[in-house]
Amino acid sequence: xxxxxxxxxxxxxxxxxxxxxxxxxxxxxxxxxxxxxxxxxxxxxxxxxxxxxxxxxxxxxxxxxxxxxxxxxxxxxxxxxxxxxxxxxxxxxxxxxxxxxxxxxxxxxxxxxxxxxxxxxxxxxxxxxxxxxxxxxxxxxxxxxxxxxxxxxxxxxxxxxxxxxxxxxxxxxxxxxxxxxxxxxxxxxxxxxxxxxxxxxxxxxxxxxxxxxxxxxxxxxxxxxxxxxxxxxxxxxxxxxxxxxxxxxxxxxxxxxxxxxxxxxxxxxxxxxxxxxxxxxxxxxxxxxxxxxxxxxxxxxxxxxxxxxxxxxxxxxxxxxxxxxxxxxxxxxxxxxxxxxxxxxxxxxxxxxxxxxxxxxxxxxxxxxxxxxxxxxxxxxxxxxxxxxxxxxxxxxxxxxxxxxxxxxxxxxxxxxxxxxxxxxxxxxxxxxxxxxxxxxxxxxxxxxxxxxxxxxxxxxxxxxxxxxxxxxxxxxxxxxxxxxxxxxxxxxxxxxxxxxxxxxxxxxxxxxxxxxxxxxxxxxxxxxxx
Amino acid sequence: xxxxxxxxxxxxxxxxxxxxxxxxxxxxxxxxxxxxxxxxxxxxxxxxxxxxxxxxxxxxxxxxxxxxxxxxxxxxxxxxxxxxxxxxxxxxxxxxxxxxxxxxxxxxxxxxxxxxxxxxxxxxxxxxxxxxxxxxxxxxxxxxxxxxxxxxxxxxxxxxxxxxxxxxxxxxxxxxxxxxxxxxxxxxxxxxxxxxxxxxxxxxxxxxxxxxxxxxxxxxxxxxxxxxxxxxxxxxxxxxxxxxxxxxxxxxxxxxxxxxxxxxxxxxxxxxxxxxxxxxxxxxxxxxxxxxxxxxxxxxxxxxxxxxxxxxxxxxxxxxxxxxxxxxxxxxxxxxxxxxxxxxxxxxxxxxxxxxxxxxxxxxxxxxxxxxxxxxxxxxxxxxxxxxxxxxxxxxxxxxxxxxxxxxxxxxxxxxxxxxxxxxxxxxxxxxxxxxxxxxxxxxxxxxxxxxxxxxxxxxxxxxxxxxxxxxxxxxxxxxxxxxxxxxxxxxxxxxxxxxxxxxxxxxxxxxxxxxxxxxxxxxxxxxxxx
Lengths: 531, 531
Hints:
TIM Barrel, 22 helices
């Protein structure tokens, strides 16, 4: 039937029709539809002479074909999962009816955190929070824990704060028994944290720090560059607080705790691997930093048997001379030697616009041994046709296993096709992209095109600490309601969770076990939701 | 060489490598590069064992291949055009350096018209305004002329205004010798325009009307729906002013004059084809409306020999019961009978979210004779997976010759591929999409993906009157600087101009002549710029 259809089918002219490559498969699909559900209806020679019934068949075939290219539509649901799906879709539609996902709403002056807080109150959010989401594959070392936890840390003994403008602006922290002698990034004066707290009033200090540890108010950023400037200033402020070895250890353990409570069972953490310091000012080796990560991971796993694991991506700053990258490579080889399975791979971090493009480091990067994988940030921009979005080409040609952000990927159809063919997943971070001014309206987020084209993605949160988002649930909420198609359902959520294991850095044997642990939690959750 | 390369080339694993369909063509391209420019360098078995030189060749091949898929990169420039291109690129880079195209800038509170005014002052804008841009293929009957011209019209004899809130809100206009008896859309009181002007002060009235005839301030729109509500209210207010037959005639002639001065030589106008009225209240037949269009077009052509032509797309409202579409079809057949070549085709207009989707009208639409083409609005939304963006499927399956807006097309890869294969152009209206809240940042405009994928587009302005934009130049400016790749140059501009003739509704013989007329102006412009 398909070839007959093909002959009789006419769009514009026979010449253009012959070019219609998709037609063969459309007609096969059409013919299947016709055999299964309908009486065969012949397609007219002219479109206008079609009967409305024939048109309806043709249309259904196209819509079906289209939807199939979004991979999640092929996920199968058990009867119990179907029951759970009904609950979820009911809540999803309730959310749509509230209207704050209406197109254009992202453009209002309402700060994202107020929306994030509203979202937290919804039944759908509760469902998503409890959902076993698998792994978080894109998150940065000092930007995971809640701001409330950061404030708690400022109550620790021997903490000093360096402020300017009579205490109005916090510039640095430092743990020390004596007044610190180190220079901060700006001129400022040191005082013990207790004194600062007393002088300014505890409530004021808490309020100030909560704000200062975040990027709010976001509305003051005119551009992506302005947002990045503030973003980096938080990282720098936090250094003195978090690089204190005992705090570093506790911060990481707490990050795992918060993630776990948010339905995350696995973490691949990007760390710049800084030198930590002790109370006497002594600097530790970066191998000690690694050891803290490793031992805290083991401790957490021992205390939480359903937690799968964590691994580390060594991700130093890209805003360096290429020769510095040689040191990075040496460090990475040393990490691999001592922490062979704990080290997931290598990346470079920092704003792509200001840092160097990957092409500048190719000579060094090619020297990394083949058993260390790349997990490159690339294309975290909405520019098109610059050295920044062309990082995407280098990431793929260097053999990256995943792409961090890849916001600009949709302007690179060849690279997008390579991702599909090579099964490279894009780490999509919806809230991060909004706060960092890449796009305001989730409906325009490029991940929708990745979904439509069947490019593998995982949902990640990047730096949730800095915008008061939950460790991963808010990003799932926006991916589900704002980015995925209107009809996306539990199949989409299930695929996102499974992708986070499929595309992680584990060896095949590890993955198998990880899937089992996830499945156990998943089945339990489905049971709960279906009830 | 290519097959040897293929064998020795390894990305991730041999299995995934075999799937790498693009590799054949990449390797052929690579081999060509190598033969032409470089000493042949063998590609290593492992990516990491590549030399930086081999990597550079491979990378260049991929970047070249990528850029080729954007059609404009294949446009050839004469030596004179190359000289003009240097001037244009110098001015383009100067614009980038001013920073208001920096990503994220669209998110600020600065109203678009202030930016539009700034743009008008730039040398690049002057160049683009004088550039022969070919045809404007997407514009609506009562939304082309400048607001200043609309204010001028309010000085005509026998005009009445209906206001509420003691004259603070204009609800309707009407030309009449006596006080109008007709009901306006809201309760209001009629008074002669002269009296109103005197009572409120002329300067105030001018200021008020300029604002009221536009969508500013745009910042008050929370959503796309809110923007549409105000948008439609301007159309309704203008009805009484413009549907007066003598004014209708002059408005259209003035639209052609403004377009012509903005470097436009051809127009395909979408009109709802309203019944016009005379000073005694008599209603004219819609065939009279058509006749005014036709005779004014001829008059304008006679007065401006370098102007190519205008055609009309009959485009009544989609927010009707399907049976009303039967009347539309009858009207359209009558238009075709009397104005065979002047009628370009048929469309349905109005907000897709509120109006009916095309699928509801299929039975009626299929009855339109085959010699009347469709030019459907479809997918003017950023929703994904709803009846609104699925209008795109119906537009193509009904055999549309172009797509109006198609903002959601990138979420429909199959339809996007069909556009490419069937050579259907998308009418891209950048400023309209911003004002109507589909997206704030031009860097995220979906047309970038259409360009990257080689889907044909034309640049249009939709309703420039309502946002104080120039008839077409502002949209070209944003398409060139905000949407097209950083490296887009005169080749892009030339292709956009040529596309507007290639994808218009003319017969082949007409097109040939149109190209000649355009080429003449183009060569003159190139001469001027190159000097």
